[in-house]
Amino acid sequence: METNKKFGLIGKDISYSFSKKYFTEKFSKELFDDCTYENFDIASIEEFPNILKNNPDLKGLNVTIPYKEAIIPFLDTMSDKAFRIGAVNVIRFTKKGNLKGYNSDWYGFKKALEPLLQLHHKKALILGTGGASKAVAFALDKLGIFYTFVSREATENAIDYNRVNTTTFDNYQIIINCTPLGTSPNTKEFPPIPYEFFTEKHIAIDLIYNPEETQFLKKAKKKGATIKNGYEMLVFQAEKAWTIWNK
User: Has residue 1 got a pLDDT over 80?
Assistant: First the structure.
């Protein structure tokens, strides 16, 4: 391997980042002594070219909120899956020096959800419509699970929260929080859905991993639902990113 391989994360307010801790520990444990990982915390995506200019030894990047869609115009090319999803969370620096965007979020989510699925889990509600929710939708498509988006305002592609009721819970057995509501330090927040309709037949998944158990998960668990936070998804997507960078 070449010397001084630098990797990093593009995002905003990312001091809490999973990625830096995960990859730093991975490099240490697996003896990748020539690899480092750095957070690039930027207030605007317009600062991205400066990161490239000031870090000529960059070999790969992760991208997190709020830039998974905003990063796309800065890329030279995208993988077919990232293009179809419309969001990028991994950037590979090709041998020619081009930036190619990938999405490993969908893969991570699919791997995390699969062990929980039973025959009656046919439909999913996706809370939120950002870049992460697009990757979740792509994974659900791959699994043959029908889904509906829920947003603060009804759109052509989403219902609003006021439409979620007991009938919705009867019809949708998987509820996925793709919003940032409940992330540390704002741990008292939660999506505005009627939690009393969760049952032991439901799965509640939160893409948030800090705190380990959000209000969303706690409220669903109280009603007997199977719950899972975003940690496992992050591990799967991180390992997929590592594979992509080392193509």
Answer: no
Q: Is the pLDDT of residue 2 over 70?
A: no
In angstroms, the CA 38 to CA 32 distance is 15
Two structure tokens written together for 69:
């869609």
- The proportion of the chain whose per-residue pLDDT surpasses 70, expressed as a percent, equals 99
Q: What would the two tokens of residue 244 be?
A: 């992509």
Contact (Cβ atoms closer than 8 angstroms) between residue 104 and residue 244 = yes
Convert the pLDDT of each residue in 217-228 to its tens digit.
999 999 999 999
Higher local confidence (pLDDT), 45 or 2 = 45
Measuring CA to CA, which residue among 69, 68, 51, 71 is closest to residue 7? 51
CB 220 within 8 A of CB 194: no
Does 128 score more than 60 pLDDT? yes
Query: How much is the average pLDDT of 14-29?
Result: 93
Tell me how far apart the alpha carbons of residues 103 and 68 are, in angstroms, rounded to a whole number: 9
**Which active-site residues does the annotation give?**
68
Cα separation, 224 vs 39, whole angstroms: 38
**pLDDT beyond 90 at 67:** yes
- For the CA atoms of 203, 208, 210, 213, the dihedral, rounded to the nearest 10 degrees, stands at -20
